[in-house]
Fold:
Amino acid sequence: MPIDVPEFLKRNAQRGLDYNREGKGGEGLTDKTLDEAREFAQGFTTESKVRRMPAWFARHKPDLDAPANQPGNDDFPGAGAVAWLIWGGSVSGDTMDAADWAQRQVDRLDRDAQAFDSRRIDKMASEITASIEEQLASALAEKAELQTSFESLASSNVAKVTELEGSLAESAKEIAELKSRVSALDCDKTALKASLEEALANQVSASKEAAKIVASLGTSPVAASPADDAAEALDAATIKATFLKMKPGAEKTAFFNAHKRTLIS
Structure:
């Protein structure tokens, strides 16, 4: 960005350019220095030029001690005085006025740069803080979402476990009932077997007794009539059907004992 220069510096630069056109500038002036002097004469300069000015004036100040570079001398202006003017400095009065002005500009530029850096650092810090806060908020939101999902999953699993426990309890109850029925059937089987063995024994014994009676009487057993056989077969079928429908237990055992002849025939 161009920097405005004061009026005295503009006048000094223009005066130096005029002397140089008259051939009094010497051979040490470069095209760059002359271009910068023209910018001075137009009222502006650059930061680069301003930063070089204090050191240049401090280095060339002894040049003004030469007689040709002092106003009022017949040989004035010497090459040193022309160069001094081209850089914007005054050759009489406060000869360091341009150097002092340049130093003030350098100090201001440094302050501005420092303030800019400070603002930039503050801005960067603010942006970093905002980014961290945003990431933290996102992480907290994600954590809350995961927590909700976990609690939902845990609740679902608890419900499933409770349901399975209920199913297991029901199965255990059914198994116990089945075991009880099997135990009852075993008892019925044992009782039935005993009754059957007893009936067989009685049947054998009755057959033997009947044979003895027939032998003693010298008669043959009278055969049952077909009608009697049919009635007896009907009663036997009813008894057997009733027995098969009964559930295992004491009642069924008693019924068997009461009709065991018919049931085992």
Summary: DSSP finds eight helices and two strands in the chain. The longest strand covers residues 3-4. Residues 219-224 have pLDDT under 50 and may be disordered.
